[in-house]
């Protein structure tokens, strides 16, 4: 990118995502020299704001959220000068025309060759209007490339996602659209490919002959904060499962691509997603899926209110804040191996981990006299700790042949001085370079929606299966039972 240069347009520039993630990401990229000399950032939102006020907002966000310390003085000025703000009614083509003129001025001032990256940190209902008005306002007429980054949720179900996609595709080609799933920008999620395909330790064992089950946990301690209105419509199924959870599962389950090219990788991901066993009936949903909502509870001695007491949440809401399921990838490699997934708000820890549990060696022959062997585990720690560890069995020092599980750990985030890029930083950089690898292709998204839609449909029929769990606990006992019925249990998450 440093050679090309681009103008970055942040729609929704006064919003939470811009403040927490996008401005800090741009600053880190700048600090690392990845933005080069030819760049400018235009913040867009309805609210009136001067350029200077906007730069103050950006500085504040960097101070609070960036992994690089905000510099003051001249160094800051040089960066901040590249930021400008325009108050914009996105429904107005006239406003877009003004934006076009401002942009051309920036491009000639910084010698930017017409490359334009539009980041829509907006509600999805607006994607279509913005796309059309960008075109009608002449913003797509410049010489360079034009790319659109859009945030989830991409629709509410398959039909709404499809019509949203059609609206966008009237203006942008598929290879100009970058659909963000920020989990794909995480270091350890990207590392799954390397762990799997660069280690003869794991690769030959990566199938139903040797793997007993896979467990994916995405636990959060937060509740719904100020997002009650959004969350109550979406729930854990649409907020986390349809995207982040399925993406992680797919990275574990996919076949090796023939090359590490974006389309080869995404082809394999789509194939894996298509192999996930669907939910043919409501009874199947009832058997393999657990939904629950947090009720009043406590964390570290502090009382926590229940979900129904949260702001903008109706007192009789049936929205799930917890989801667990037993999934199967019905292909040759994974036949019969359960993939257990769970995610929830107000759980005891903030942690995302993937546990691969291997099958035990024949037991009861060598060591079984007094002891039951523990299975080997490969644990990928995604967030907030980053690393991997494996659990193996070894002899306990001493005279008798006692076997004990020991852990061999690689803790990436413990290394001093390590400063891994944030997910958003990586993804914005990838989009600016035109690399689609870690973005969701339309067919991938379509399959994911088709998989979760029958679950949502079954839930709509009645709420008898909705469980409650006290805030600060690990969810309802039914989530434990999903595994117990198969002779397994959730490995404790760190
Ligand atoms: C977002 C969800 O996509 O991911 C949030 O909308 C959730 O509800 C967040 O809190 C979790 O992301 P991370 O990176 O903090 O684990």
TrEMBL record:
* Range of residues in the leader sequence: none
The protein's enzyme class: oxidoreductase
Q: What is its EC number?
A: 1.1.1.49
**Which family does the record assign?**
Belongs to the glucose-6-phosphate dehydrogenase family.
Give the record's GO biological process terms.
Answer: glucose metabolic process; pentose-phosphate shunt, oxidative branch
Show the active-site residues: 244 (proton acceptor)
The UniProt record gives the binding positions of substrate as 182, 186, 220, 239, 345, 350
**Which residue ranges does the record assign to the Glucose-6-phosphate dehydrogenase C-terminal domain?**
194-491
Pathway linked to the protein? Carbohydrate degradation; pentose phosphate pathway; D-ribulose 5-phosphate from D-glucose 6-phosphate (oxidative stage): step 1/3
UniProt cross-references to PROSITE patterns, sorted A to Z:
G6P_DEHYDROGENASE (PS00069)
* Protein name, entry field: Glucose-6-phosphate 1-dehydrogenase
Q: Which reaction does it catalyse?
A: D-glucose 6-phosphate + NADP(+) = 6-phospho-D-glucono-1,5-lactone + NADPH + H(+)
């Amino acid at each position: 990118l440093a050679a090309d240069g681009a103008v970055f347009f942040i729609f929704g520039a006064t919003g939470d995502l811009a403040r927490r993630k996008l401005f800090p990401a741009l600053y880190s990229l700048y600090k690392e020299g990845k933005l080069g000399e030819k760049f400018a950032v235009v913040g867009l939102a309805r609210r009136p704001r001067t350029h200077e006020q906007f730069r103050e907002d950006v500085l504040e966000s960097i101070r609070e959220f960036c992994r690089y310390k905000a510099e003051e003085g001249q160094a800051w000025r040089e960066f901040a000068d590249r930021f400008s703000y325009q108050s914009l009614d996105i429904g107005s083509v006239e406003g877009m025309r003004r934006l076009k003129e401002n942009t051309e001025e920036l491009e000639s001032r910084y010698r930017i060759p017409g490359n334009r990256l539009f980041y829509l940190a907006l509600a999805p209902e607006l994607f279509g209007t913005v796309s059309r008005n960008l075109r009608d306002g002449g913003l797509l007429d410049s010489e360079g490339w034009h790319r659109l980054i859009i945030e989830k949720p991409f629709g509410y179900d398959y039909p709404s996602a499809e019509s949203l996609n059609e609206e966008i595709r009237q203006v942008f080609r598929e290879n100009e659209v970058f659909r963000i799933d920020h989990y794909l920008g995480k270091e350890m999620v990207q590392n799954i490919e390397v762990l799997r395909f660069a280690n003869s330790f794991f690769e030959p064992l990566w199938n139903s002959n040797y793997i007993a089950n896979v467990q994916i946990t995405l636990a959060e301690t937060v509740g719904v904060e100020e997002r009650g209105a959004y969350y109550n419509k979406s729930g854990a199924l649409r907020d986390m499962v349809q995207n982040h959870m399925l993406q992680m599962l797919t990275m574990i389950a996919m076949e090796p691509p023939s090359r590490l090219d974006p389309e080869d990788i995404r082809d394999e991901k789509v194939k894996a997603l298509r192999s996930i066993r669907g939910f043919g009936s409501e009874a199947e949903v009832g058997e393999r899926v657990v939904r629950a909502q947090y009720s009043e509870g406590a964390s570290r001695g502090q009382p926590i209110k229940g979900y129904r007491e949260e702001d903008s949440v109706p007192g009789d809401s049936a929205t799930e804040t917890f989801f667990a399921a037993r999934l199967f990838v019905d292909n040759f490699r994974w036949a019969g191996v359960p993939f257990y997934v769970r995610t929830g708000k107000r759980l005891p820890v903030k942690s995302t981990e993937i546990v691969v549990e291997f099958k035990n060696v024949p037991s009861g022959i060598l060591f079984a006299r007094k002891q039951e062997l523990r299975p080997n585990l490969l644990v990928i720690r995604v967030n907030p700790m980053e690393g991997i560890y494996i659990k193996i069995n070894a002899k306990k020092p001493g005279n008798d042949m006692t076997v004990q599980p020991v852990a061999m750990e690689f803790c990436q985030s413990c290394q001093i001085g390590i400063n891994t890029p944030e997910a958003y930083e990586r993804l914005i950089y990838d989009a600016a370079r035109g690399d689609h690898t870690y973005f969701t292709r339309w067919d991938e998204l379509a399959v994911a929606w088709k998989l979760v839609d029958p679950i949502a449909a079954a839930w709509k029929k009645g709420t008898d299966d909705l469980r409650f769990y006290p805030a600060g606990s690990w969810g309802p006992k039914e989530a434990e039972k999903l595994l117990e019925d198969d002779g397994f249990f959730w490995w404790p998450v760190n």
